[in-house]
Amino acid sequence: MGSMKKFNGWLLLGSAGMILTACNGDDEAAEGTDDGEDTNGDVVDVEIFQGKVEFRDQFIELSELYEEENPNVNIEFSAVGGGTDYFSTLRSRFSSGDEPDVFSLAGPSELNDYEDNVLDLSDHPAVDEAIDGTLEGATDGDGNIRGIPFQQEGYGLLYNKRMFDEAGIDADEILTYEDLEEAVETLDDQKDELGIDGVFALPGAEAWVMGDHLANTYLSPEFNGDMMEAYESDTVDFERADEMERMLMLQNDYSIEPVLNMDYSQQVEEYFSLERTAMIQQGDWVHPTLEQMDPEFANEHVGVLPLPVEDYEGHIPVDVPNYWAINEGAEDDVIEEAEAFFEWMYTDEEGIAAVQDKLDMIPAHEGFDVDEIDAPIQQEIYEYVLEENTLGWIFTGYPQGWGTDFGAHVQEYLSGGRDWDDVIEAGQEEWEQSRE
Amino acid sequence: MRNRSPAFWLFIAPVLVALMLVVGVPLLMGFFYTFTDWNGLGFNQFVGFEHYSRLLGDDRFLSSLWFTIQFSFVSVILLNIIGLGLALIVTQKLKTSNFLRTIFFMPNLIGGLILGFIWQFIFINVFGQIGQFMNVDGLQGWLSTPTTGFWGLVILTVWQLAGYIMIIYIAYLQNVPGELIEASQIDGAGPVQRFKNVTFPLIAPAFTVSMFLTLSVSFKIYDQNLSLTDGGPFNSTEMVAMNIVYTAFDSNEMAYGQAKAVVFLIFVSIIAISQVYYNKKREVEM
Asked: Which positions fall inside the ABC transmembrane type-1 domain (chain B) (predicted)?
């Protein structure tokens, strides 16, 4: 009996091990057959590697559509998780020699890292068609364009239209900080009638919401909205530090508690889509999530308000988060087919129609039709783009990692462990240090 | 070292070669890179000991190291106490002891990432709801302060690993010869004395194994840290492993991150080796 007992645990361990190996085996088998197919016939394989997992399925549908018309091309989309993971995977793929043919880059600092690997796309039709101001992040030191803008993204305060109506607030009249404050107070007074836990849901656990997005809004004017100016700057002044603090505290004071352990999914799914809060500071990328939770809410009840910035009231921060870059080291026919694919995607009538049909996004190219954008947040922000009421994103020109570090200081401020001047000073010092 | 026959070397050659390729070579390469400005793709110049001297003034690294030391200290003690406690429970003549073993061991089968998310839910939502219901402030806002983040991580780790440590103790407890126990009983030793003077010295090797395991595991924890707190709030619960990953992949300073990893390796080795040495001396041979 005693020895039986002893082996119980090992049995469990063993079975766990077997399950694990079984999973691995499956993966390998699947890959194996994939490769087998590819070698048949004269099909050109183009491997596209990118970091937007949320668009993966739509991309695959899009490429299938393209492959139907161009049977000689096989486009393989692979995607890895958000931000950090993608770039570390890309890096290890490059250092191990398993380079993708096409990959996405976020801005000047990545472009700088991969400058020797990406093709000059200055003459590509999709670059010609790009909307003014969308190419800055993909321009190298010699003025050559090294990437095709993928789409645009914008953020602001997403609000619940139904609640604004009920509270008798006209969102169109909110421009200045004072207007916003008044609206927030009105909403706060009617918390119980509206059935909300708080006017805002500030995700204190997400350093990027504060360090990248909120800070960007108040830093953009001092760099003239130009990410290259930020990228080349040795210092940061924080001219609008007080304005930023004011906006942060407004969100914090009227937010659902506790702020510091609230994360993105709680903010968007649990609080905003379930109508437990009236406003969140987020961007158009939340649309697919909202739609999954509640299509009616996502498509009818969500509006966008600009974060109030003095002298820039009614401006929304919009820019290109990702560029497509083509690997210069790929085979000539692969490069040719990759270029043709992007030409189709961004300049061909059919391609544009397919993209608009499949992807909910803010276009970065002329030739897209604002009425064809189904998603309301995207459409509303695109209208700001058309009216040129936008603020450029400069956080892609931050020193690497600066945004999350600064976000962490802001978290410390929210916890009461640090005063605001100290936070700003730390931000300035870290910026200068990494630019030495 | 004693001379071995050629057959000895022949038989361990496959393992040696594999180990060299996946551990030895990368280790040496990594060590080499710490003296360069390597960014993951290539390097331009040698920088000597610059990375190492910079480490000493890196507050964030030092605070993550201090956090890790505190965390390891607390969790090693709790893990061994609870692991041994569980082992003692399930080696009693209980009807349910087989069932209990399985239950206690279960958390170990769940991956660290998933566990982290499960406990995040428990700490934030379940604790929050209970706290609200019973009006206990202490249960609300877990993981939103450095202290609750610390204890959250300790609870998670202890919960996950205690079952594994239990298995080790069970193995040794069952090897305690019955006649020694019986002899002590005849000599009139009570349960406490019996445990202290007979069982405890005989299971000392289990301590060596468990202390070594728990110490090295809690020092190197990454996935639980990532999914439970992600270093937050404001990097106060960031452990060394996470700080290294952050430096290498977020700040994009590969060589500097590598230098941190080398220092970390040396640090962990010193602790682990000295601890094994010390515990070995205390063991009783039968």
From this structure: 65-277
Q: pLDDT for A54-79, tens place per residue?
A: 778 888 888 888 888 888 888 888 88
Q: pLDDT by residue (tens digit) across B262-274?
A: 999 998 888 888 8
Under 8 Å between Cβ of B238 and B60: yes
Distances (CA, A) of A8 to A14, A68, A246, B103, B104: 10, 56, 61, 12, 12
- Report how far residue B258's alpha carbon sits from residue B256's, in angstroms, rounded to the nearest whole number: 5
Of residues B39, B41, B101, nearest to A9 (C-beta) = B101
B268 inside domain: yes
Q: How far apart are CA B4 and CA A434, in angstroms?
A: 55
With an 8 Å Cβ cutoff, is A396 touching chain B?
no
Let me know if residue B96 belongs to a domain. yes
Q: Establish if A81 touches chain B: CB-CB under 8 angstroms.
A: no
**Quick check: B170 and A5 CB within 8 A?**
yes
CA–CA separation, B107 vs B126, rounded Å? 19
- Assigned domain for B17 exists: no
Rounded to an integer, what distance in angstroms lies between the CA atom of residue B183 and that of residue B197?
12
pLDDT tens for each residue of chain A, 436 residues long:
344 444 444 444 444 444 444 444 343 333 333 443 444 457 888 898 888 777 788 888 888 888 888 888 888 888 876 555 788 788 888 888 888 898 888 888 788 888 888 888 888 888 888 888 788 878 887 888 888 888 889 999 999 999 999 989 998 888 899 999 999 999 999 988 888 999 999 998 888 899 999 999 999 999 988 888 888 899 998 999 999 999 999 999 999 888 888 888 889 988 999 999 999 999 988 888 888 888 898 888 999 999 999 988 889 999 888 888 888 888 888 888 888 888 888 888 888 888 888 888 888 888 888 888 888 898 889 888 888 888 888 888 888 888 888 998 999 899 888 899 999 999 999 999 888 8
* Interface touch B171/A259, C-beta < 8 Å: no
Q: Note the pTM of the prediction, 2 decimals.
A: 0.77
Given CATH 3.40.190.10, say whether it is the number of domain A42-152+320-367.
Answer: yes
Domain boundaries, chain A: 42-152+320-367, 154-318+381-434
> What backbone torsions phi and psi does residue A102 show, to the nearest 5 degrees?
-130, 140
Give which of B170, B250, B256 to mutate to test A binding, by max A Cβ within 10 Å: B250
Question: What residue numbers bound the domain in which B189 lies?
Answer: 52-282
What gap in Å lies between CA A403 and CA A410, rounded to an integer?
A: 10
Residues with Cβ < 8 Å from A336, sequence gap 6 or more?
none
Chain B residues closer than 8 Å to A261 by CB: 124, 141-144, 232-233
**Taking CA atoms, what residue in A is nearest to B171?**
A6
- Measured in angstroms, the CA of A9 and the nearest CA of chain B are apart by 7
Q: Domain containing B81 — which CATH number? A: 1.10.3720.10
Residue B240 in domain: yes
CATH number of this structure's domain A154-318+381-434: 3.40.190.10
Give me the number of domains chain B comprises. Answer: 1
CB contact under 8 A, B230 and A411: no
Partner-chain residue, chosen from B124, B144, B252, that has the shortest CB–CB distance to A400? B252
Overall residue count recorded for chain B in this entry: 286
Cβ-based contacts of B233 with chain A (< 8 Å)? 204-205, 260-261, 411-412, 415
